[in-house]
Structure formats: structure tokens, C-alpha cells
Amino acid sequence: MRCVIARFPFDLTKSGVLESMKGIKPEQVVGESVIIGRRTYPVKQVGQVITRQDRRDFSAGEVLRAMNQLGFTCRGLPRATVPTRVLSPLQQASAMLGIPVTV
Fold first, then answer.
1. Which sign, positive or negative, has the C-alpha torsion 63, 11, 25, 48?
2. pTM of the prediction?
3. CB of 42 closer than 8 Å to CB of 31
């Protein structure tokens, strides 16, 4: 498959990516990731290995798009959870009565 990463065209195949990543130890995943084989790699690490370019030269989105088209499983950024506020018994009773809860 032909794709453009950092303004350069690349002919990538699934088997070629698997071969390129063979023997590469995955770095710690903090953001977006790609599952290649049984390992989970950060997107930027995969892009650096398959393009042989500096990580600053391409975006994670370009690599994610290419890996998705090749059939690899990609994961985006984890969603931030909204912290739940714990109400005191008085605030809980007020809320059940329909009176506004004050902090």
C-alpha cells in the first residue's frame, strides 16, 4: 500500500511492517499505540522504525492512518475520567429534596 508520511511516499505492506518491527523492544506507551504481533508499540516508535525518519518529522495521525489501512489494531489517547464528587449525607438529602447542593 502506498502512503505518504512526512511528505514522503512509502510502499508499506503488513508483512514488511512485521519484519521491520521484529526484534524491536517496545517503549512505554503513554499516548496512541499500535499492536503489532503480540506487542503494543507507541505510534511514534513505529513511525520512526518504518520510515527511518526523526519522530519530529511526522505526526502520530499519519502513522495511525497507515497502520489502520494495513489492518493493525490502533488505540487512541485514553479518555480522561471525570472525577465524581462525594456528597456528604446533608448534601445528599438536600439533593433528594430538590434543594441546590452547595459546596
1. negative
2. 0.71
3. yes
